[in-house]
Design a protein that fits this description.
- It is a single chain.
- The chain contains 17 helices and 18 strands.
- The protein is globular.
- It has 476 residues and is an alpha+beta fold.
- It has four domains: 98 residues, 2-Layer Sandwich (Uridine Diphospho-n-acetylenolpyruvylglucosamine Reductase, domain 2); 119 residues, 2-Layer Sandwich (Uridine Diphospho-n-acetylenolpyruvylglucosamine Reductase, domain 3), CATH 3.30.465.10; 116 residues, 2-Layer Sandwich (Alpha-Beta Plaits); 88 residues, Alpha-Beta Plaits, CATH 3.30.70.2740.
- α9 runs antiparallel to α14.
- Strands 5-6-10-8-9 form a five-stranded antiparallel β-sheet.
Length: 476
């Protein structure tokens, strides 16, 4: 039990193991890492360990196991569900993987990279771009999110429509288990039927089954050309029909398909004073579409974009549309989409829900859920935006004007989230599409999750971490 742990002895041994750079007890140095990115959870830690290698992680975990010290692994601290924040007891060790930031190998011919857990996503993008390759996963927090964190939460992003989530990008994995043993499976094989695919068990487990220390990731040829389109649609049903039309006409060139309501765009334009709407007039829904291609087909991509929009206009799927004239304008279009969250924060407190339902049912779900929530909670505004192509939207409910952030989120906000998750479950969906469960949604998962699935997960947890020292209080 934590109260029986000799923390002075433990920390002295940890400091001797990791050296002065590898362990800190300084409250000022710890403070920035004790609150989650959204500011919803703040904890305490006995110290922060920053090992520099997989071997050091393994030795540290063995030390923690011997003393009974719980471990909270942390990457870039950019998670959305409080999954990398310690509890308030001060008994847990915060384990930072940020010093393990080496890209061990970029195999151009094999189109794969071996990265340590602390590699920042944007740094990986830049490194492989120098080899005319790309890593096909990106998101708004790419400047801070780390590979280990992305794997632990099975992160998604704007390219999931074509390439899948992080789970699809991991070819091999290295992790330290609860007893300090090293699971080493970095060498990828196209075909391997030697039992369970154990790396997939660790992906998305949020550090509760093992600590990811490195991964082999798949790479693709660099994009030679991209065309970014912006369209206005009268309804979500029309936007869904537009998606199907784009898939038919553009095929594999279709890489991104994002939706946002007109009110979201208006908030972003207010937030970004130098920005302007891509289209004139008002449209109930806006659609951001990205087409990409390799060098062999680059010359025809602009024409393909024009064909898509012309056909969509002819079929009445869209009301108006435009094509980015150059890369600067393409980036400006994406900035509008990526600025929704900071623009929303200026409007006051809100509760955010990262949810999914079957792709074909998403328009119907949004049209049913928005008025139901707003009627149940007068003065709120419900907005949905995001990845329509993979059935995942961010369903946010903004507080009535004049409400304080903490009080409203902890009171009405929690009750609203409960109702949203009830609705999603009624529709056969998921309460977490890409951000994980962490501590934010743990109670809702226990309440709404399939009992058989939950029992299986608990049995796996018990088998791999019988003492419950790996990221306690998260996920399960």
């Amino acid at each position: 039990m934590p109260g029986m742990i000799d923390y002075d002895a433990f920390l002295n041994e940890a400091e001797a193991l990791l050296g002065p750079r590898g362990l800190t007890r300084d409250p000022d140095l710890l403070e920035p890492w004790l609150t989650d990115w959204r500011g919803r959870f703040t904890g305490q830690a006995c110290a922060m360990a920053s090992p520099a290698s997989t071997d050091e992680v393994a030795q540290l975990v063995r030390l923690c196991a011997r003393h009974g010290v719980p471990i909270v692994p942390q990457g870039g601290n950019s998670g959305m569900a409080g999954g990398a924040t310690p509890d308030t007891s001060g008994h847990e060790l915060l384990l930072s993987l940020r010093r393990m930031s080496a890209i061990r190998e970029i195999d151009v011919e094999g189109r794969k990279a071996v990265c340590e857990a602390g590699v920042v996503l944007q740094n990986l993008h830049e490194a492989v771009a120098e080899k005319t390759l790309r890593f096909p996963l990106t998101l708004g927090g790419k400047g801070s999110a780390t590979i280990g964190g992305l794997i632990s939460t099975n992160a998604g992003g704007s390219q999931v429509l074509r390439h899948g989530s992080m789970r699809a990008q991991v070819l091999g994995l290295e992790a330290v288990l609860a007893d300090g043993s090293i699971f080493s499976a970095l060498t990828p094989l196209k075909k391997d039927n030697r039992g369970f695919d154990l790396k997939q068990l660790l992906i998305g487990s949020e550090g509760t089954l093992g600590i990811v220390t490195a991964a082999t990731l798949r790479l693709l040829p660099a994009v030679a050309e991209r065309t970014v389109l912006w369209a206005g649609a009268a309804s979500l049903k029309a936007a869904r029909s537009l998606l199907l039309y784009c898939e038919d006409v553009a095929g594999e060139a279709l890489e991104g398909f994002e939706i946002l309501p007109d009110d979201c765009l208006a908030a972003v334009l207010k937030h970004l004073p130098d920005a302007r709407s891509p289209l004139s007039g008002n449209h109930a829904w806006h659609v951001l579409i990205e087409l990409v291609t390799d060098s062999a087909r680059a010359d025809g991509l602009q024409a393909l974009g024009e064909t898509v929009l012309a056909g969509a206009l002819e079929r009445g799927l869209i009301e108006d549309a435009t094509i980015a004239a150059n890369e600067t304008q393409a980036e400006a279009f994406w900035l509008l989409r990526e600025s929704i969250a900071p623009a929303e924060r200026e409007r006051g407190p809100a509760v955010q829900h990262d949810i999914s339902v079957a792709v074909e049912r998403m328009p119907e779900f949004i049209e049913a859920a928005v008025p139901r929530i707003e009627a149940a909670w007068p003065g709120t505004q419900a907005v949905a935006f995001g990845h329509l192509g993979d059935g995942n939207v961010h369903f946010h409910v903004i507080a009535p004007p004049g409400n304080g952030t903490v009080g409203w989120e902890e009171g009405e906000g929690k009750l609203i989230s409960r109702q949203v998750y009830d609705l999603v479950t009624e529709w056969g969906g998921s309460i977490s599409a890409e951000h994980g469960i962490g501590q934010l949604k743990r109670e809702d998962l226990a309440r709404l999750g399939d009992p058989v699935s939950l029992a299986m997960m608990r049995q796996v947890k018990q088998a791999l971490d019988p003492a419950g020292l790996l990221n306690p209080g998260k996920l399960l």
